[in-house]
Design brief:
alpha/beta, Spore Coat Polysaccharide Biosynthesis Protein SpsA, Chain A, six-stranded mixed beta sheet, three-stranded mixed beta sheet, 9 helices, 9 strands, globular
């Protein structure tokens, strides 16, 4: 684990952002981009990150996919941090994080609204549901919890309970994996993640298993915790585009290189609002004018 001091607050040890990027170069590059974005929005706190190995005691990825997130939280808390914000390495901070930490202070935690309006029932295996004594129908009413960004105030009882239960359920041998059997390779892992060949369920509503998100959804449901923050958006989902209040942008990329922060800023702050949006509006107006002209011509012909 490495620590970077960002800003010069009176007591930055109480507040931190944590993340992990190991393996592919794109992940480590994304970590450095995330650091740069935190500096640009003048984050006042520490950045803790893992870029070489998982936190101590964390199981291998195939044994408990994404269990490292809970272990990173515990390590940060052990070091004395109380307001802890996990941000996936593939995200960038677009605006000040202060509103997120204020929400964390008020509510004890920050869970973000699912941009896709999806439910836990769509993204969890039959075996994980059975193991946790949940029916598919009940799971379809429970919101899926995005875990790309999640904030916990460790002075809060509900946040402490969430982390304790999330850590436990991620290590139970079934909930995080989605299956009781061993995951042997990446092909099998992808079959589970995307329910290929009905690997985890024959229910046509089931799209895959989301490991950390599936586990977090169960724990949040048990504790009565609901997602409420709209500060997180996904660059790939145009149905719910970036807004003026978007603070963190999920910017997943699938090649060997990533877009620079300058490129992302150009797209979000210049191209989308000043070029794409007016162009789309102009196209709609031209289409409306053509339709009106055609309708008037048809009426003259009819008369």
């Amino acid at each position: 684990m490495k620590t970077l001091r960002i800003g010069n607050g009176i007591d930055p040890s109480k507040r931190c952002v944590i993340s992990l990027g190991i393996g592919k170069e794109v992940y480590t590059s994304s970590l450095m981009r995330l650091v740069e974005s935190l500096r640009r929005v003048k984050f006042d706190g520490d950045f803790l990150f893992w870029d070489e190995k998982f936190p101590e005691g964390c199981p291998p990825h195939f044994d408990a996919p994404f269990a490292f997130k809970a272990y990173c939280f515990y390590e940060a808390n052990r070091l004395g941090y109380t307001q802890i914000l996990w941000i996936d390495s593939t995200c960038v901070a677009m605006r000040s994080l202060s509103p997120i930490f204020e929400s964390m202070n008020q509510n004890g935690y920050v869970l973000f609204n699912n941009n896709y309006d999806q439910s836990l029932g769509q993204w969890i295996s039959d075996e994980a549901l059975c193991f946790n004594h949940l029916s598919r129908e009940d799971a379809m009413t429970i919101p899926e919890i995005p875990c790309s960004v999640i904030g916990l105030d460790m002075n809060s009882g509900i946040a402490s309970s969430f982390l304790k239960q999330w850590h436990k359920i991620m290590s139970d041998g079934v909930t995080a994996k989605g299956v009781t059997s061993e995951i042997r390779d990446w092909d099998e892992y992808q079959e589970i993640s995307w329910n290929r060949n009905n690997r985890i369920s024959r229910d046509p509503r089931v799209r895959g298993h989301r490991h950390d998100q599936s586990a977090a959804g169960i724990v949040a449901h048990r504790l009565g915790m609901l997602p409420y923050s709209d500060y997180l958006k996904d660059i790939h989902y145009e149905a719910k585009p970036v807004k003026r209040n978007t603070i963190i942008l999920h910017h997943r990329e699938f090649g060997k290189s990533i877009a620079s922060l300058n490129e992302i800023h150009w797209r979000i702050f210049v191209k989308m609002p000043l070029i794409d949006k007016p162009r789309a509006m102009l196209r709609r107006l031209l289409g409306l004018a053509r339709n009106t002209k055609s309708l008037l011509g048809q009426r003259r012909n009819d008369s």
